[in-house]
């Protein structure tokens, strides 16, 4: 029986070599070049998306973020009759709602990563990130509980997902947002573009318009001009067009 070929350990050796050395570049690009040992095991991260939770889960998650110990004293339940009204909005109510959305837009921001440098320890950074994230959650809760009766759409409540975003922004020279050609502004996040520039003004924001085959040439030109006026480069992509081109080449 022939011997089984030995498995190559080249990949494992490269990974071990990369993470066994600490690189600290104190130049302008330190944020995306420094290897900060922040204690995160990237193979065991809790990357389960959490966009909706009940009151108990919300309470437990907030307590964990704040590092709070608590004991349940007793359960006091109060039934509150629903006071919301269901119906079709009038034109005046729609106008008021649109105005309210415009006023609240500046309050709805993505969480920022606290400032850090090469002297920041992993424990300090973890604590700062948790405090900053908890404060962000509190601000959103205040908006929902305010007198205006604003209801927020589901948003990501897992801190690990935001940590992934922070690291990507810090280490990238170009940050690409993928939007749907049928409604590009629905999926575009202007605050992400602002955050990218806050981290480093030299970083570039790019809009990738997916499913561009739904648009005519005139519509693509109009969207390209629209984003160019706002200092953004727009790239149009269609997987359908690529498949058609590949099939035509195969037939030849």
From TrEMBL:
This is Large subunit GTPase 1 homolog. GO terms for cellular component: cytosol. One of its GO terms (biological process) is ribosomal subunit export from nucleus. One of its GO terms (molecular function) is GTP binding. Keywords: Cytoplasm, GTP-binding, Hydrolase, Nucleotide-binding. InterPro entries: GNL1-like (IPR043358), P-loop_NTPase (IPR027417). It comes from the Eukaryota. The keyword Transcription regulation does not apply. The keyword Cytoplasm applies. Residues 1-26 are annotated as: Disordered.
